[in-house]
Every structure is written in C-alpha cells, then in structure tokens.
Amino acid sequence: MNRENIILIGMPGSGKSTCGVLAAKALLKNFFDTDLLFQGLEEKKLQDIIDENGIEYFLAAEERTILSLDINATVVATGGSVVYSDKSMEHLKKSGKIIFLNLSYDTMVDRIKNITTRGVVVKKGDSLKDMYNERLPMYQKWADLIIDCDNNTVEETVAEIVKAAEK
Ligand SMILES: Nc1ncnc2c1ncn2[C@@H]1O[C@H](COP(=O)(O)OP(=O)(O)O)[C@@H](O)[C@H]1O
Ligand SMILES: O=C(O)C1=C[C@@H](OP(=O)(O)O)[C@@H](O)[C@H](O)C1
Ligand SMILES: [Mg+2]
C-alpha cells in the first residue's frame, strides 16, 4: 500500500469531510478528520471553543492537534482554519500530498448555512468576504494540486481526488 497521506485543505463547506471519507474508501486508505481529534482533545464542540476561549486559543489548540498527528496511508480532512499555522502546514506537507478543494465565494456562502454553529474562524471585525480573500492565497500557496469544486458533484470531486492521489 502507498503510505503517503492525502491532505485536503480548503474553505469551510468545500467538501473536505464529505468527499474525503469517500476518497479514502476508493483509495484503500484510512480516513481522518482532524476536527474530531481536536474536539476530543478539548472535550468541547468547535463552536464552544471559539465562543468560550476565543480565536487565538482555538488556533493554538488546532495547531497542537495537527502537530500531534503521526499517521500515514490516510486521507486527512483538515479544518478550514489549518492554514493559519505555518507549523501545522509544514507538518502536514512532510507526510503527503496536499490537495486544495477550491470553491468560489458564492458557493462557499451557499454551502455554509450554519455559520454561527459550525465553528468557523472569522477574525473580529472581518466579514466572510474578508476571511475568504485572506485565506485564498494561503490555500493556493500550500497546494500540490488544486481541484475546482464549484460545478462538481460530490462523486466528481471524489473521482478527481482519487486521480490526483494516484499520480
Ligand atoms: N458538490 C458538492 N461537493 C461537496 N459537498 C457538497 C456538494 N454539494 C453540496 N455539498 C454539501 O456541502 C457540505 C460540505 O461540507 P463538508 O464536507 O463538511 O465540508 P468541509 O469539511 O470542507 O467544511 C455538505 O453539507 C455537503 O452535503
Ligand atoms: O474554516 C474554519 O475556520 C473552520 C472550519 C471547520 O472545519 P471545516 O473546514 O471542516 O468546516 C473547523 O475546523 C473549524 O471550526 C474552523
Ligand atoms: Mg470538515
């Protein structure tokens, strides 16, 4: 088995979790959603960490979670805010191929209806558009490969992830 990880990054709602698990199945790899480990370590839902501890704490705790990862042969769905930590991104990059699931701003907004409960990191005073514009070049910078997901079904994105992983 190829031991390389396939690491999915991208805006909230881009399908990292939904498509990641299906791609893992198709690739005969394990699947790992870093949000679940993060919540488990903190013993709190992501939104509660943001509300009760603030964004700075949230990002530091997310970084601790990512740096604790020692896995291989796994499709990894990261949280959208992972790109705020260079250390986390370097750690992930060492372990495999980074795929950016790219979405337009409008599609992101359409997908994330539950913005106040799903635990998205938006800095104080910033709009969702500010968050989008700030992050886009960060995802692009770390990506080994970019998949444009706006007009894709889940199955099409999964097929593109599988193709990219097998390259
Ligand atoms: N074509 C599509 N690809 C991926 N997700 C889609 C698509 N169309 C609708 N969705 C929905 O968008 C949401 C994607 O959320 P999720 O997988 O949690 O993304 P992420 O983990 O990147 O935040 C899910 O509710 C999914 O059902
Ligand atoms: O984009 C973000 O700021 C976040 C997205 C969430 O994950 P998804 O990208 O899986 O929605 C979660 O990790 C975290 O609460 C922050
Ligand atoms: Mg997710």
Automatic annotation (TrEMBL):
Enzyme class, broadest EC rank: transferase
EC id: 2.7.1.71
Binding site for substrate: 35, 80, 135
Cofactor note: Binds 1 Mg(2+) ion per subunit.
Pfam families xref list: SKI
Gene Ontology terms: cellular component: cytosol
Keyword Lipid metabolism among record annotations: no
Residues reported to bind ATP: 13-18, 118
Primary residence: cytoplasm
Residue positions binding Mg(2+): 17
GO biological process: amino acid biosynthetic process; aromatic amino acid family biosynthetic process; chorismate biosynthetic process
Catalytic activity annotation: shikimate + ATP = 3-phosphoshikimate + ADP + H(+)
Places the protein is found: Cytoplasm
An example Gene Ontology molecular-function term: shikimate kinase activity
Pathway where this protein functions: Metabolic intermediate biosynthesis; chorismate biosynthesis; chorismate from D-erythrose 4-phosphate and phosphoenolpyruvate: step 5/7
UniProt keywords, alphabetically: Amino-acid biosynthesis, Aromatic amino acid biosynthesis, ATP-binding, Cytoplasm, Kinase, Magnesium, Metal-binding, Nucleotide-binding, Transferase
Cofactor: Mg(2+)
Lineage top rank: taxon: Bacteria
Annotated family: Belongs to the shikimate kinase family.
Quaternary structure note: Monomer.
Protein role: Catalyzes the specific phosphorylation of the 3-hydroxyl group of shikimic acid using ATP as a cosubstrate.
Annotated protein name in UniProt: Shikimate kinase
Gene for this chain: aroK
